Amino acid sequence: MKSPYVFTPGPTSVRENVRLARAQQCTNPDLDLQFYDFYKGTCEKIGKIIKTSNPIYILSGEGILGLDSACASLTEEGDRVLVIDNGVFGAGFADFVKIYGGKPVTYKSDTTKDINIDDLRRFLEKDSDFKYATIVHCDTPSGLLNNIDKVCPLLKEFNILTVVDTVASMGGEDIRVDEWKIDIALGASQKVLSAQPGLTIVSISEEALRVMENRKKPIMGFYNNLTIWKNYYKEKWFPYTMPISDIVSLDVALDNILNEGTENVIKRHYKYGNAVRKAILEYGLELFIEKGQANTITAVKIPEFIGCDKLIKHMLEEYNVLIAGSFSYMSGKVIRIGHMGENADKDKLTYLLSILEKSLMDLGYNKKNKSLVEEFLKNL
Ligand SMILES: *Cc1c(COP(=O)(O)O)cnc(C)c1O
């Protein structure tokens, strides 16, 4: 299989040392007690990145497993759950809540802006009878970054547990699980962390665990039951055989971040996100997001006469560069540039933008006297 240059908003590029880590000889992760320490160490590295002392678990399964598990473990028949929806993944939580017999109440908000805190407060003053609330930090199909630093503490004022999907932001944006009172934070290996797809990451607060353990009826399922991890280290028992090669490579990807420094990595994402956005605007194109733009992804509106599908196909077929379109209400309207993790990089983005610029011109876009690449470099 020929691999294109990948600039999708996850999976993203994987550094060579992470790829090679997978080739290591591996031990039996159930029986070799060394592995329990290794696994715990990897989880603790994630804790440093998202600033929490809550326990963290790495589960075998792509990011969706985290969303599914959080809803499965918390939801009981008839529970009211507040689903904060200003994006595709935001809305999608309602489906998981329903599967487990809960009653989702959707709080709809502008899909081009982060949450208006005063409006949410007014809503909660009238109705706050929710077991938990769900919100997405970075809603990947649009690149909207929600202000969870304000939303989560507000929800906790009303005694509502907070479940946050940080899959597309973990590593690239500031996340303070403890300070912002995030009961469950969900992540995945293949986005900003820049490892291969296959792993879910979950951090669980004491309060969330207590609620799960005090259910009237048991959790429906095993794979999605977050309470089974609690004593894995003490009892030296994993619920199932851990995908050791995936975890060994994730560990290297986390070291890549920690060696650069968590704060430096966040700054790097801002630097390149900001330069991409400015270049796009200078080049005469428009951004989808008006307020609350993620630094990991940029959704760019593409004029109808060019067409998103045509542009994406052209870039892949002519130049072997893979970017993404979007779906739902953005389908056919935007392309998405992933500048997350390993792709938040000067050389890589210079290359991508030069191919994007060339492709736009091939398809008849003509922005005289401006160069996308030059604008990008100027704004670094
Ligand atoms: C990628 C992602 C997930 C995981 O879902 P996929 O099946 O990989 O699409 C969940 N939430 C968000 C916000 C994501 O970006």
From TrEMBL:
Residues 30-323 form the Aminotransferase class V domain. The modification N6-(pyridoxal phosphate)lysine is found at residue 191. It comes from the Bacteria. One of its GO terms (molecular function) is alanine-glyoxylate transaminase activity. GO terms for biological process: glycine biosynthetic process, by transamination of glyoxylate. Keywords: Aminotransferase, Pyridoxal phosphate, Transferase. Its cofactor is pyridoxal 5'-phosphate. Substrate binds at residue 336. Belongs to the class-V pyridoxal-phosphate-dependent aminotransferase family. This is Alanine--glyoxylate aminotransferase family protein. It comes from Clostridium senegalense.
